[in-house]
Every structure is written in C-alpha cells, then in structure tokens.
Amino acid sequence: MSALTGNTVGHRICPLCESTCGLLVELEGRRVVGVSPNEDDLLSGGHSCAKGLGLGRIEGDPDRIRSPLLRTDTGGFREATWDEAFAEINRRLPEFVADAGSCAIYHGNPAAHHLDATFYLGELISAVGTRNIYSPASVDTWPKNLAHMLLYGGGLGLSLPDIDRTDYFLVLGSNPMVSNGSTVTAPGMEQRLRVLRERGGTFVVVDPVRTRTAEVADLHVPIRPGTDALFLLGVLSAIATEGLTRRDRVPEVVDGLDEMLTLTADYGPDVVATACGIDAELIRTVARGFAGAPSAVAHSRIGTCMQEFGTLANWLVEVLTIVTGNLDRPGGAMFSLPPAGGQNTWPVSRPPKLMFDRWRSRVRDLPEAMGELPGVCFAEEILTPGPGRTRALITLAGNPARSLPNSAAIERALGALDFMVSIDCYVNETTRYADVILPPPPLVTRGHHDVTLAHFQIRNVARYTPPLLDLADDERAEWQILLRLAAIAKGTPERTVEEIDDDVAVIATRRAAKLAGCEPDAAAIASGSRRGPLRLLDLRLRSGPYGDRFGLEPTGLTLELLEQKPDGIDYGPLTPRLPEVLRTPDGRVNLVPPMITADLPRLRASMARPVDNLLLINRRQRRGMNSWLHNALPQPDGGQCALMMDPHDAEMRGLVDGDRVAVTSSTNTVHAELRVDAAMRTGVVSMPHGWGHSGPGLRTPRSEAVPGSNYNALVDDSTELEALTSSPIFNGVPVSVTRLSEERS
Ligand SMILES: Nc1nc2c(c(=O)[nH]1)N[C@H]1C(S)=C(S)[C@@H](COP(=O)(O)OP(=O)(O)OC[C@H]3O[C@@H](n4cnc5c(=O)[nH]c(N)nc54)[C@H](O)[C@@H]3O)O[C@H]1N2
Ligand SMILES: Nc1nc2c(c(=O)[nH]1)N[C@H]1C(S)=C(S)[C@@H](COP(=O)(O)OP(=O)(O)OC[C@H]3O[C@@H](n4cnc5c(=O)[nH]c(N)nc54)[C@H](O)[C@@H]3O)O[C@H]1N2
Ligand code: SF4
Ligand SMILES: [Mo]
C-alpha cells in the first residue's frame, strides 16, 4: 500500500471488467492521483491489472468530455449548459417518441458496470416506448444466454465453474489471462489457475491460438474456429461409448439423458476430428480426463459464442458437465446466490415465459432475446424505408460504430438519423454523429455494488463501495440524466428527477416488501433518507437472500452494514441450489431442448465443407477495453493491432514479419501490419477489435495517432449469422491476406 499516502483514500470496486477488483483510490481534490489493489478485499484479495491501476489516467484524460456538447450548424460541437442541452432534446426528441418505435436505444458495456443504468435505464426505455433496444449482449453472450435459458430457465442465472474446488477445468474460447474472465467473476485468475494445478488439478484450454492462458494449461486443444460443438459431441460420444457417464451423480431433475447420449453416436472422435482440425486421440484424452476426475467443469466464453454454432456449443458445454455428474456439486458447475437478488433468486410466475422470440425485427424478422433486438438489425432498421423506420437514437456508454459488425453500414446509418443523443465521455466513432452529447460524472461520485455481475461470482461475497465525492454543480449523475430524458420522452419535462425517482422507489419498495414478507410502509421507512440508486440498492439488499427483511432478521444484510465493511462480507463458497434455482416451465432440466437439437443437421452438414480459406478470429489486449481505452491508456506499441499469422501460412504467401498487408473479407478490406507468430494455428489469423480510430470529427487525438485497423469493417451482418440467436460470426471470418506493397515497418 506504499503507493498511497496522504490525501483522501477510499475504496472503489473497479468498473472496467467482470473481475470487479477491489481497489483503493487516492484523491487530491477531485483528481484521482493514485490507485492500488485492496489486499483485504474479500473477493479479489489484492488482484488488479494495468487498466484498473490506470483509473486515474482514464478519469483524468484531458480529452474526456466534461460538459454537454451541442452540434453546431457547421457540423462541429460547442459546449453548452445542461439546461440548454435538455431544452434542445425537449425540442426535438418528442416527435420521434410520438412516432412509436422510431427512437431506438443502444446501451453499451460500461452501462452494465454502474448502478445508474442497472436501475434506471428501464424508465427511459418504457418512456421512449420502443422495442428497438440494442446492446453488445447480442454480439457477446446470446448463444450462452439462450442455452442456459432453455436448460435452467434464466438467461442471467448462468451456471458457474467452481474453479477454486474443481479437479478438472476445461475452458473453451476464453483467454482469462488477458480478459480477466467473463460470465465468471473470479478476480485473480492467474493465481487461481496456479493453485488449481498445485493441488493436482488439470487445466485444459480449447482455443485455436496458443494464448497466454493456453500457455499455463496442462493441455491445449488447438481447435479450428467454429468447431467446438463438434469437438464436444466427439467428447460426449467417447464418454458414452466408453461407459464413462456418471448416472449416479446426475441430479434427479435432469431429463433426456439417454436421448442425449444416443444423439452423440453419429459424432465419434474419428468422425469429427478432421473438421475440428485435431487428433481424435486428443478428443478421447479430454473425454477420459474430464469424466474420470473426481470433479470437473467446462466453461465456455466469447470464442464459443461469436461463432457459427454458438448455441449448440454452449449447450454441449453444459451437457458435458451434467452427464459426468458435475452439475450443482462443489468443483462442478454451480449457481451463485447474488446478494441483491435477481433472476435466479426471485420467484417466477408459473409458467414462466421464455425471454426469446417474443417479437421480431421489422426488416428481417429476426427474433428478440431478453428484450433486445439483434445488433445485426441496427443499421438496416435505420436505413430501410417504411413505417416504423428508426429515425432517432439514444446511445448510453456504447460505441456501435466499432463494436457491431459491418461498421461501414453502421456509420452510414448513424449519419442517416434525424436526431441522436449520446450519454458518453468521448467524441468517438459513434458519438461524432450525435446532436447532443451528455457526459457522465467522475467515477468517484458513484456508489457501487455489482448487481448483475454478482450472478457470476464464484464465491458469495457482498461488497459495496460508496461515493467518495459529491457531484459538482456542473455534473449530473447518469441516473439523473436518464430520468430527465425519460421525463422529456414522456411529455412531462416539468417533472423533477426527484419526483420520478420517488415513483420508481414506490414500485421497488412494494416489490421488496413482498419479497421480504413485510409491509410496504415498513420497507419505505427502513430505506430512510437515501435517494437515487442507493435507495434502490438498499431495497434490493434487504430483500435479497441475506437481507435483514427490513428488520425481521436484525443481523441480516443492509447497505448500512456494507458501508461499515468496505472489504465486503463473505457468505462463503457456492452451495448446491437444485432444484429451487431452476426457472424452467416444469422446474426440470431437459437435456435435449428441441429448439437447439433442431440445429444439429446444419452442424452435421458443416463437416463436409472444404477447408480452404484463412479464418480470421478475434483477440483481446491487456490494456484495452473493447474500443474505449486507447486514448487514455495508449498502447506502448502500435503493432499490438497487427494481424497475427502462423509462420507456415506466411511462408506460403511469401509474407514476412512487418509486412503491410491487405486483409479482405466478403464485405471489405482493411490494412494491417503482419506479425508472424507460432502461437497461431495454421489457417487462422487474428486481430483485435475496437480499433480503427479514424475519420472526421473525433476528439481522441492519442488514439487517432495510432488508429489501428477496424476488425468489424470486415464482418458481415447480413447472411452469415448464428442460426438461433442471429449473433454475428466474429470468429471464423473467411479472409484473404496479401502484401500491400514492398513497404515494411
Ligand atoms: N483486457 C481486456 N479485457 C477484457 C476486454 C477487453 O477488450 N480487453 N473485454 C471484456 C469483455 S466486454 C468481454 S465479453 C470479455 C471476453 O472475455 P473472453 O471470453 O476471455 O475473451 P477473449 O480474450 O477474446 O478470448 C476469446 C478466445 O476465444 C478464442 N477463439 C476464437 N474463436 C474460437 C473458436 O471458434 N473456438 C474456441 N474454442 N475458441 C475461439 C480466441 O482465440 C480467444 O483466445 O473480456 C472482457 N475483458
Ligand atoms: N469483432 C469483435 N467485435 C466485438 C467484440 C469482439 O470480441 N470482436 N466484442 C464485443 C463485446 S463482448 C462487447 S461487450 C462490445 C462492446 O461494445 P460497446 O459497449 O458498444 O463498446 P465499448 O468499446 O465498450 O464502448 C464503451 C463506450 O462507453 C463510453 N463510456 C465509458 N465509461 C462510461 C461511463 O461511465 N458512462 C457513459 N455514459 N459512457 C461511458 C466510452 O466512451 C465508449 O464510447 O464489443 C463487441 N464487439
Ligand atoms: S482485472 Fe478488471 S476489474 Fe480488476 S483491475 Fe483490471 S480491469 Fe479492473
Ligand atoms: Mo463483452
């Protein structure tokens, strides 16, 4: 803790990634001047990374927007007061709200890491009255959400790998040594993996690339992109034929075991191995190791989601864990019990309705999931004429111009809007098209608890870090911005944020009282003088699984108690939750959901396809966070954005390290520097996403100086989609690579 001396030091849960590390933040006036890991944090235990430790530079970036911006007649922006900005929105937004559905909303990744959007975005969505809601979820997790929804009933209450107790950990399509993990909140993955191996456990990574994570594994399966479902069927088939199923440990609530095992018969290791690009013996080794371990769990992430057979792959990951008797057991796949409650703790109305395909998009008739439309619909809903066309847009903490596929179409669409409001801290590739930009306040003015990510915590720990500073006069909290926009959208601009917040709280109080089994009055009194997100958080914690039920359980959890325990309160390792955790219509787990198995013929047919193209896949970078940290934390080496290629592929094309190359897909060409790297599999090249910081009107000079290449300019949003969820196929994009000129860098 030597880095932090003098000044004000406070606790802060890092909002940048799903690890949610506990940090100590030192303030000098309103400036963050030091950040260090909180060694005493009960979940993260002193873990942090360069991004979290860079929070001071991120918050202090001189290019951040600090006051509202209004578009000028000449196409630039001018600073404005909050009153001016809201007056302009009030003048223009209502027209599009009145034309039902014509104002869309896009909310990005950082919004999931703040209480403001968690609690108040719903108000804005209902005030705008649109079904045209988008977020990165549809390009990130939907195949996993859908598989879990169909198996367990909840898209958010995912099963989690009990990493700290497992004997065999199989990871597919994730590189947690760089990403710090996703749909699993387990800060300090490096340490956890080391401990796993030290206690005799086995760690296996399935990834086309020998990543940093694969480097520390006992076994690396260098699979061909998009073939995880085939690989898993091969593993399951070996388990079935070698009699390795652990029926005795399969929970009673599981149906369809025999049918499932029969299904695998056509996909023996020798049948799938060629398509997967690996040796059949490797598939058998994994099958025997996984099934033979005292406990084992498979965890799949974005590499398995953003691909052609994403839902199948994510379904089979669960099937593997289940048939080997590892569901809901220590060391297997378990469910969290999130302190603020949520989808996997609240009672459901029976029969619960599947949050999928309840409505469809206007242009292409693609199904919604969890209340949102697929991101691949975003551009066409704006660009295709006709009734219901999207004409206005509100973005919150998102950069669709770099995170959605087919960036050229996205930017054409952004340019074709009649009105656009962005809540964001940069003028970037997306917000440069806005008419009004509203900046979020400094991070340290927010209190924080991870309501959503606690669903992914591998240990039940409750933590809260309070605001360290009050808002300055010229700052607005994001929940206040959201409610002001909601008031305008509803046609009641005269209503105050406080009045609307009280209305929200009345409903939340009623709900919390019902959950806690007490009178609404008692809950209202108990939440006291708190307002905004902290009142709603207190209601959720007190009515949650460890809550004080507004006094009925006097030692139970309250926000006040967490305020006194800034390192958190530990409720211990995950505990078995079957069958009460299930939210399926019949309260059981059907191993063979017809919606998913209907996609098997497509998978089968894929095995006959010739393998001739180079396939482009994505990689993440330690100091980046999708598209938005490149200005505040410039990468030391612009070459980080390079196209990586295996030496054999480079030699065949006469390419050498440092060449400038053209990467061409069916939609576009981008230029990149070539890095020849033996970590790549033959036939596979990789680039990071979120780059391409170029074009007019940006206010991010340091990222413009090293603009990099835009991966998503290469990705198709029209024909090639994951069949069930319409997710784009970011991983496995067929490309050709040629030298640009004799130029070498
Ligand atoms: N430093 C950093 N951390 C981040 C982010 C960041 O941008 N930078 N982003 C955050 C976000 S929003 C998310 S969602 C998470 C994602 O976290 P992860 O899911 O861990 O994502 P990646 O690090 O991209 O790892 C995906 C891996 O899948 C592999 N892969 C590609 N195609 C296939 C395939 O077909 N099959 C298999 N088995 N593997 C494949 C890739 O080679 C890559 O190693 O990371 C978060 N953390
Ligand atoms: N090819 C390819 N594309 C991908 C991915 C991939 O692996 N490959 N990954 C996908 C994934 S997993 C994700 S999650 C998406 C990310 O997609 P997005 O969320 O659309 O993109 P980000 O780059 O995370 O942009 C975050 C935005 O939020 C702003 N911001 C940061 N902090 C705050 C805040 O506190 N308040 C507000 N209001 N704004 C803030 C930033 O300035 C930035 O504009 O990208 C997806 N796109
Ligand atoms: S690992 Fe994630 S949560 Fe932890 S410090 Fe880094 S960015 Fe923040
Ligand atoms: Mo993500």
Structural class: alpha/beta
Largest sheet properties: 7 strands, mixed
**Could you tell me which ligands this complex binds, including any ions or cofactors?**
ligand MGD, iron/sulfur cluster, molybdenum atom
Q: How large a portion of the residues is in β-strands, by DSSP E?
A: 15-25%
Number of helices: 27
What proportion of the residues is helical, as a percent range?
25-40%
Radius of gyration: 25 Å
Count of extended strands: 28
Overall geometric form: globular
Report mean pLDDT, rounded to a whole number. Answer: 95
Distance between the termini: 42 Å
Report the uncertain regions: none
Oligomer: single chain
Instruction: Output the strand order for the largest sheet.
Output: 5-4-19-18-17-6-7
Domain 4Fe-4S Mo/W bis-MGD-type: 7-63
Keywords: 4Fe-4S, Iron, Iron-sulfur, Metal-binding, Oxidoreductase
InterPro entries: Asp_de-COase-like_dom_sf, MoPterin_dinucl-bd_dom, Mopterin_OxRdtase, Mopterin_OxRdtase_4Fe-4S_dom, Prok_molybdopt-oxidoreductase
Protein name: Molybdopterin-dependent oxidoreductase
Verbal overview:
This protein is an alpha/beta fold. It is built from 27 helices and 28 strands. The strands form eight sheets. It has a seven-stranded mixed beta sheet, with helices on one face. Strands 23-27-24-26-25-28 form a six-stranded mixed barrel. Strand 2 and strand 3 form a beta hairpin. Helix 4 runs parallel beside helix 19 (478-489) and helix 6 packs across helix 15 (310-323). The longest helix has 20 residues, at 497-516. The protein starts with 7 loop residues before the first strand and ends with a strand. The mean pLDDT is 95. The structure holds ligand MGD (2 copies), iron/sulfur cluster and molybdenum atom. Residues 14, 16-17, 19-21, 48-49, 51-52, 180, 187 line the site of iron/sulfur cluster. It comes from Gordonia rubripertincta (Rhodococcus corallinus). InterPro entries: Asp_de-COase-like_dom_sf, MoPterin_dinucl-bd_dom, Mopterin_OxRdtase, Mopterin_OxRdtase_4Fe-4S_dom, Prok_molybdopt-oxidoreductase. Pfam families: Molybdop_Fe4S4, Molybdopterin, Molydop_binding. Keywords: 4Fe-4S, Iron, Iron-sulfur, Metal-binding, Oxidoreductase. This is Molybdopterin-dependent oxidoreductase.
